[in-house]
């Protein structure tokens, strides 16, 4: 695959990949080797491991979850190098931690860390709601309402797992409909952590019933283009989760 744009050398001397190439005008620019289109082993290992961690119920489990690098490489059918690189990336994102002479473990956030994550999320999502009232189409907002059509009229408790998925999709869509690429990027990694705690708490106390009522009120405010109310409702909804964690999530201690 040829690389267009930066690194194109049609009018300049050839250089080996990684070496700078001097153009006739004397301006140096990098000499780039072609990039393979297929995902690397590291990326595949990273994606598989991250998905597996997110799917775990790590907060109700009291046991530490240790990841065996050698075993993972065998399971993937690849060398240990891309697995090690994937682990390093996951550690930088706060999903695993390396303990000297012990190994690599999945991270369980403390109660205070979870509350801080939710508080940061409240700020991002409330701003996204503000932007939705200004930029989203009526059809896009209507799509939010359609997510919950199957859970009205007493069907919520009978399909809690499905509602949990819809709940997560709702919050992802709120961020996406902001159409602010910086906000979306900032929220991406944080939301993966939030996904785990939302899945854990949705069946606790009256969280599910309160959740769907909050969502309907948020959607109504968005449909009315009531910027101030939409922003406030989204922020209060997120901070309600923080309050729930502070009061009831003893398993995080």
UniProtKB/TrEMBL annotation:
Residues 1-34 are annotated as: Disordered. Pfam families: FCD (PF07729), GntR (PF00392). The keyword Transcription regulation applies. Gene3D superfamilies: GntR ligand-binding domain-like, Winged helix-like DNA-binding domain superfamily/Winged helix DNA-binding domain. Keywords: DNA-binding, Transcription, Transcription regulation. The keyword Transmembrane helix does not apply. SUPFAM superfamilies: GntR ligand-binding domain-like, Winged helix' DNA-binding domain. Residues 39-109 form the HTH gntR-type domain. It comes from the Bacteria. InterPro entries: GntR_C, TF_FadR/GntR_C, Tscrpt_reg_HTH_GntR, WH-like_DNA-bd_sf, WH_DNA-bd_sf. This is GntR family transcriptional regulator.
């Amino acid at each position: 695959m040829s690389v267009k744009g930066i690194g194109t050398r049609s009018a300049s001397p050839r250089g080996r990949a990684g070496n700078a190439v001097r153009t006739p005008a004397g301006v140096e620019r990098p000499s780039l080797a072609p990039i393979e289109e297929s995902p690397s082993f590291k990326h595949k290992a990273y994606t598989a491991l991250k998905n597996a961690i997110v799917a775990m119920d790590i907060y109700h489990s009291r046991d530490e979850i240790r990841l065996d690098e050698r075993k993972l490489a065998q399971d993937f059918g690849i060398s240990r190098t891309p697995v090690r690189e994937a682990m390093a990336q996951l550690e930088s994102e706060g999903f695993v931690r390396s303990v000297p002479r012990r190994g690599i473990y999945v991270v369980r956030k403390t109660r205070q860390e979870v509350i801080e994550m939710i508080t940061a999320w409240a700020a991002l999502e409330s701003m996204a709601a503000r932007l939705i009232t200004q930029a989203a189409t009526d059809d896009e907002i209507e799509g939010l309402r359609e997510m919950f059509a199957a859970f009205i009229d007493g069907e919520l408790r009978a399909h809690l797992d499905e509602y949990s998925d819809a709940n997560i999709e709702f919050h992802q869509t709120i961020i996406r409909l902001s159409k602010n690429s910086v906000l979306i990027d900032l929220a991406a990694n944080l939301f993966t952590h939030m996904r785990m705690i939302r899945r854990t708490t949705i069946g606790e106390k009256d969280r599910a019933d309160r959740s769907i009522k909050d969502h309907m009120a948020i959607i109504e405010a968005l449909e009315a283009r009531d910027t101030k109310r939409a922003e406030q409702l989204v922020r209060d909804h997120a901070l309600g989760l923080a309050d729930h964690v502070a009061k009831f999530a003893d398993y995080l201690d």
